[in-house]
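May I ask you to review the protein record following this short note?
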Amino acid sequence: MSKKRKKKEKEIPQEPKELSEWQKRNQEYLKKKAEEEAALAEEKEKERKARMGEKSDTDEENGDHESESNSTESESDTNESKPDKESSEDDVEVTEDTKEEKESNEEKTLDKKKDKNKKKKAEKKSSKDKPQKPKIPGVHIWRALTMLVPSFFILLISVYLLSPYATKKDIHVEGTNHTTAEEVRQAADIQDSDYMLSLIVEKAKYEERIKSNYWVESAQLVYQFPTKFTIKVKEFDIVAYYVSGESHYPILSNGKLENTSVSLVTLPETYLSVMFNDSEKIKTFITGLSSISPEIKSAIQKVELVSSNVTSDLLRLTMTDSDEILVPLSEMDKKLSYYSKIKPKLTEPTVVDMEAGIYSYTVADKLIIEAEEKAKKEAVEAETKQKEEEKKNLEEQKNKLEEEKKKLEEQINQNQTSQRSQRR
């Protein structure tokens, strides 16, 4: 009976049945999936246009394979949905409980498929469609370097200044003969707490301090990596010696007179002796020597100050060949050069007088003149002594007379007082 009924039902044209809920959901899912695929395709086309042909031909082929895979996936999904539809139509007579279970299972499978598809698309996008990082312009790199490099150096300098190496110094002194290395260091006034960089930067200041030592003519502070400093000193030359008895005091090339005497052992074989200690005149004499030829300078043996009534700064220069030169100190640099022209004409020790004009006479004549002048002075002195003695004798006689006068007055007074007393 049942088979006949089924045949009859098949032969009878059935009216179109309404779609089930699962079929509606499946149709909605397919529509959404088609829309998503269309949107993805549009995004890919936009990205391709934006890249301006950056991707190679291989990337385009990969994209074609992706589209084919997507289409195969969509076809498989539709094919899966078709048997589902046929099964749903064949199973109309199944109970409502079994339908609901099937629908729930199918929904779960569809959700899993959706998640898998989404994951695959995300992986493909991340692997193939990653946007290239834009290059940083060179201007920004240079700007960053101009800030970073000075900051790095400032950091290094600050760390160095905080370290103990910033004040570590190894100081050596070179070129000292008359002064000592310790005196040079004291003149430089370099403290242990002074930074090494301050010595390098303010080098001129320390060099000027070293010149405060009167022996030092010039000083140079030289730095050698890492912590060595060398003070190279040039001292003033000793031009002459001020002689006072047996003591000899050096006179430097800058005209300064040393306060400490030198031992006789250290004296050179030949040296210039200065017999006056006026600091201003010594300085003028040393500066005047600098303009004289070395031949004349080396021939001078002794210098004396012999002031006359006319010239207060008259000098007597005794030469090594016993010649003598009389020249004013203020005119020494002008007149002394003529001695080199006069010297070849001199046959014996001569006195060259340059006080007023220039003339010469022999030393013998000078001795005679000096003897005559000495005799005159002695005669004058004798006369003055005689006059003084006569004056003293007169004063003594005058004093004696005054004393006798006082005695007589006293006697008279005494007699008068005695007479008055008798009368009373």
